[in-house]
Each structure stands twice: as structure tokens, then as C-alpha cells.
């Protein structure tokens, strides 16, 4: 486990215990707002397109404009949080995100909405990058830390599925503007609570590690990587390859810079930790699986089973309920009894089984026999795996690197989600198009494309299981 300061390691008084758990509630509220926003938009996309006149390719930038700065700035924001203080970075991120949400909600043109979404991504990165570092500092004792991570993970996981439901409900009842305006009261309340409840924290100071050349290199590399992933289907193979090569070159230049810099942005010693490196690699595969399932699963319900937007969101509700109950009721206790490694493997087995079962979903399927059982398996698997994986990733980082490790973990989450979403949606679309050219009907061709995506996602989950089994086991 990472080292802690004397103040955080002392046994807390009853007042201090209340303050820590109240601080956790604030961190969860801020995280929930950013996670909801990332998912709530997808259901409202047709309404946004109709109202603002977006073209098909242009509409994708309502999502991409958020993902690119969010994924690109997480690592830099995590390190700056170590330097200026994580509470300051978190509060500033909430303020930027909330203000940008209002701009999104009142947008009457395409350019304003896309620009405001980019600012939202900046604020989301600032707030999200430091949360795990704050959490492990608040809860240094292993059992309490496991409980805190379980609560945090439950909020994050449930928020993803809940966003689909809220997006459909708000869009259908009030209009798409309210999927952004709803962030105003949440953001203001979270910001006030953060200022009053979260304990002040002094950073190391900007003069002790603000490697701006390294920051420029890694931010450019990460933004370009996310851009390559989310826009791969809109460009030719030559442009995509050149962008990928440039991103790789920037990563190499960043690594060389960090090896020689007196005060590096990201200490390369983090990657010497088998737990940090392995957990982040496993997360890319696991989150790619889950994001792909959420996106393709929603399309399967709408385009194959004929569900409305609100009905689709309602169909996903058992997932956040199951995740919340299992994470809050069992996750910390099972990790404490069996260890994070065993719980992670069990969760990945359930995720693999759920995806394998979902890959059989037929064109004439129905919700109860074909969707609900794999949905519950995936929810149970994620409820077990995510807190265990988070604990393993953060346990390999020192206290002074907690912000950077938190930013790294959030970065691989965004990269994994973007990669899974881009890969699986592209495979499904190409499979469907190929079958249509050969004379297949629209419904069976669409269902077959989604089945292929589910099969590939099963491969992602199985690869995550094999990697975790081989890399994350603690050696004595």
C-alpha cells in the first residue's frame, strides 16, 4: 500500500471519521456529475441533431469534443493536483465543468455546443484526475479504503447506466437542453460542499515538478490518441495511420523527456510497479468491454427489439441497482476476506460469461431471456472487478505519486472506453453493411453485426482475465 503522511495515518476521532466520509460523499457527487454527462448525451443525440442541424459526421463531435480534452488532460491535471493541492484542482474542475454545462444547455448553434463540450472536457479532467489520490489519502487503512473504493466505484458504475435512463427521460419530457442544465444545481451544491467539507491540502508547489515541455508532449500524445480512436471511422486508413504514428512518436519523446528531467511530470518508476502497469493494462480491456456493451446493447434494444429511448434506459436500470447493492453490500467484505486479486479474477470470469451469453442474442429475441441474464452477469462481474482493480492500481503508487497514478488510471479508463466503443461499433457497422450488400434483410443483418461486436467484446474480457491472472498476482 502506498505510504501516507503521519496526519492521515493517525486513528481518526469520531469528528474526523465523519469528515472523511462526508468528503467521500462530495467526491462521489462530483464524479457522478461527470460520468452522467458522458453517458446522458448519447440518448439525446437524435434530438440534438434535429434541433441544431448537425450532419452525421458532425454529430459525432458532440461526443468527441468532450472526450479528446478529457482524455488528453487527465495525466497533466493529476500531476498539477499534486503540486497545487488536490482539493484546489478538484474544486476548480467542478467550477469549470458546471459553467461549461450551462453554456451547453443554452447553446443555439453547433459551434457553441461543440466548444462548450470541449470546455466541459477540460473541467471534467481537472475534477476526475485527482479523486483517487484524495480517496487513498483520506482512507489509508486497508479495510476502510476498500469500503471507500467500493462506494466510489458503485457511484461511478451505476452513474454510467443511470445516465442512459436520465438521458432518455429528460430528453423526452423536457428537451435535450436539460441534460446539460441539470448539472447546474448538482455542480453548485458539490462545489460548496467541497469548499466546506473537504480538508485543505497543500501541494508541493509548482516549482517542484511542473515539467511543462513534458506536459505538452504527453497532452498532445493523449489527445491525438483519443482523436485517432474516436475518429477512426471518419477518415481514410492513411490519415489514421499517420496520426497514430505521430501519437507514438510523441509518447516516445515524452518517455525520453521523463527519463532525463530533473522533476518529471510522470515518474517512470510508476511503470516499474507490476501492479500499476498491469492494472492499467487490464482496465483498458475491461472498460473497452463494458463501454462496448453499453453502447451496442442500447442499439440492439432500439434497432433490433424496437425499444424507445425511455424504454431502453429503463431496460438498463437493473444494472446500476445490482452494481450498487453488490458494491456497497459485499465488495469491501469479499476483498477483505479473499483479497483483491481473487475478487478481480472472479469478476472478470462473470464479465466474460455475460458477454459470451450476450453474443447469442438473436434478431427475434426478447428482453427477459436474451438481455436481462447477461446484463446481470455483467453487472455482478463489474461490481466485483472494478473496486479490486482500483485498489490494486493505487496500491503500487507512493503518496507523492498518488495524483499522477490517479490521473493515469483515469486516462487508461478513457482510452479503453474510446477504443472499445470505436472498435466494436465499427466492426458491427461493417458486418451489417457487408450482409446488406449480399441481400440480407435489415433486421437480421443489424442483429448479426451486433453479435459480432459482442463476440469480439468477449475476447476483450477473456484477454483481461488472462492478463490479470498472469501479472497481478502478488509474488512472495
UniProtKB/TrEMBL annotation:
Q: Which residues form the Major facilitator superfamily (MFS) profile domain?
A: 23-476
Which InterPro entries does the entry link to? MFS, MFS_dom, MFS_trans_sf
Pfam family name, one? MFS_1
Report the transmembrane regions from the record.
21-47, 59-77, 89-112, 118-139, 151-170, 176-198, 210-230, 236-256, 277-301, 313-331, 343-363, 375-395, 407-429, 449-472
Q: What is the membrane topology noted in the UniProt record heading this document?
A: Multi-pass membrane protein
- Coarsely, its chief localization is membrane
Name the record gives this protein = MFS transporter
